[in-house]
Automatic annotation (TrEMBL):
Catalyzes the phosphorylation of the 3'-hydroxyl group of dephosphocoenzyme A to form coenzyme A. ATP binds at G11, M12, G13, K14, S15, A16. Keywords: ATP-binding, Coenzyme A biosynthesis, Cytoplasm, Kinase, Nucleotide-binding, Transferase. Its EC number is 2.7.1.24. Its main location: cytoplasm. It catalyses: 3'-dephospho-CoA + ATP = ADP + CoA + H(+). Belongs to the CoaE family. This is Dephospho-CoA kinase.
Length: 198
């Protein structure tokens, strides 16, 4: 089984590209979705113990938690120490299920793949990219997004140029959905050939 790591900076079209892989029949593990699930289950007790008052009967109150950790590097590190191992375990269970089902290719959708050392866990890295002007337009169209917020987010992410340099494959989402989908399907043809040779 070949494990592809899918990543890309904010506004590059990673979520839409992950959906294209899923539509092509490839199992996709979404790290962000895993966090949402964990915030309703396995992560709740540990988050409440470290950040009292940030959970409810329904799970972690994301807004309350954000207010507690925003701008506090130590608090963010503590939260990551709780969440990252749980997400990793969730991904490992996903991979075990895929192997048991004899899947040829799977995707791990990891937003900060390079930044968190995730490249070591995959066979090949797929970076989703677009021109900076397209990225900026997409992100600033999001509710509540500002130039300052965008700058702060980008400051925490590896530059797109470096991600593309380290990638095994690059999907360009700047030319529209149909062109990006064609690139995804072409990539899958290549990867499936690689899987058959193993």
């Amino acid at each position: 089984m070949i494990v592809l790591g899918l990543t890309g900076s904010i506004g590059m079209g990673k979520s839409a590209t992950a959906q294209m892989f899923a539509e092509a029949g490839v199992p996709v593990h979404d790290s962000d979705a895993a966090v949402h699930r964990l915030y309703r289950a396995n992560a709740v007790a540990a988050v409440e113990a470290r950040f009292p008052g940030t959970t409810t009967a329904a799970g972690v109150d994301r807004d309350a938690l954000a207010r507690r950790v925003l701008g506090d590097a130590a608090a963010i590190a503590d939260l990551e120490a709780i969440v990252h191992p749980l997400v990793r375990a969730d991904a490992d269970a996903f991979l075990a299920t895929a192997r048991a089902a004899a899947r040829r290719v799977v995707v791990l959708d990891i937003p900060l793949l390079f930044e968190t050392g995730g490249a070591a866990r995959v066979d090949a890295v797929v970076v989703v990219s677009a021109p900076k002007s397209v990225q900026r337009t997409r992100v600033l169209a999001r509710p509540g997004m500002t130039e300052d917020k965008l700058a702060a987010i980008l400051a925490k992410q590896m530059p797109d140029e470096e991600k593309r340099r380290r990638a095994h494959f690059v999907i360009n989402t700047g030319r529209g959905v149909d062109a990006a989908r064609a690139e995804v399907l072409g990539l899958l043809r290549t990867v499936n050939m690689m899987a058959r040779r193993r």
